[in-house]
Amino acid sequence: xxxxxxxxxxFRRDLRIHDNSAxxxxxxxxxxxxxxxxxxxxxxxxxxxxxxxxxxFMRQSLVELQREFQTISTGLALFHExxxxxxxxxxxxxxxxxxxxxxxxxxxxxxxxxxxxxxCQDLSIDxxxxxxxxxxxxxxxxKNNGDPYKVFTAFYNNARQLPVALPSALEQPNFVKIxxxxxxxxxxxxxxxxxxxxxxxxxxxxxxxxxGLDRQTAYQVQRDYPALDATSKLSAHLKFxxxxxxxxxxxxxxxxxxxxxxxxxxxxxxxxxxxxxxYPHVFGKAxxxxxxxxxxxxxxxxxxxxxxxxTGFPIVDAGMxxxxxxxxxxNRVRMIVASFLTKDLHxxxxxxxxxxxxHLVDYDPAVNNGNWQWAxxxxxxxxxxxxxxxxxxxxxxxxxxCHYIYRWIPELNGVSAKxxxxxxxxxxxxxxxxxxxxxxxxxxxxxxxxxxxx
Length: 454
Hints:
The chain is an alpha/beta fold. The protein has helices at residues 21-29, 41-44, 52-71, 83-94, 107-123, 152-159, 202-211, 219-222, 235-240, 245-256, 261-278, 300-308, 314-326, 331-344, 349-359, 365-375, 391-398, 403-408, 417-421, 423-426, 439-451; strands at residues 4-11, 30-38, 77-79, 98-102, 126-130.
């Protein structure tokens, strides 16, 4: 016999029916389940960290999810209000006895869920929050004394020993049937209606990527070359949960083996999420507080040239133009442009973190913050401050024939790769800007600033 007559399940960063932990628990313990998605105005209304490409990706994934529900003779209820108000509304209409959600870890998410706990207590209904988003929960991968790891390698060696649950099949669900007249597609948001090309989204695309992971056999060798299509493109799907991290994990294991470096990337995602959970001050401040006193120039004109891809450093500009046009940037190039902003232009990592948040289709607050603090040498297990990416050497090594640079900087198409790699000494400045700073001088200045605080 079911524990609950009717329960509410709230989709969030888990836009799939299959292998959805909280949804499965709701189905197992309830006679009927009402599935819904809530457009929380705190997230949907425009704000400084809102990503237009990510919002569009979410919308398109919701459209596919809604259509999947319709194939099983039900629908996905959509609400445009605060989650606590939606729960009150559903309680009045359906007399739900429980609410189920998957766990989230950011400061905003924890506040939102505390509000849900309170409203459920007020209504005398149960609230269930279920682990789903990570391979390992923040309380699991810890030192013997219970402290969280601050070094990735130690975390990884511990976390990879813990079992990863197999993906679960959807048991015969009995969803609350929604009136067909009330089934609508998710809205087109004004802030993304124009000028945003949607990155391939939805569960069907996620499954296509998972099915083709066997093409990643050369990932370890090719992943740092941005001109090659050698990365998985799974990040946005994992962010919005169109596939589960368990599905990704076992697809990699089955097609590529237990030691494939793609698995390590899944654990980096967990690691940064754990750091954000245990040390929420990282949103706004350096992980290491001594670097809160680091002197930044924060030149707005320099920042705009970086953002527009007009610095005169081809690999940096190619990356920023790719980001602005597609919502995506190759991971190697993300590291290069972040290092350039913080250590060549001496602009705070917080500015770059916010810009990436506004433009990345795969924007994940914890991962984005972790990557920026890594590049700026202010975070845990970060790049040492004295190791600074040389953009000239980086482009020579990872884009030797300039195929990536030519793709995103068409004004250089008539210039030889050799000349591009020597642009800092032989530029004309006519068709493409001269380098805006001297890398050697600025990197030395950065070392001196960091050294005073290290």
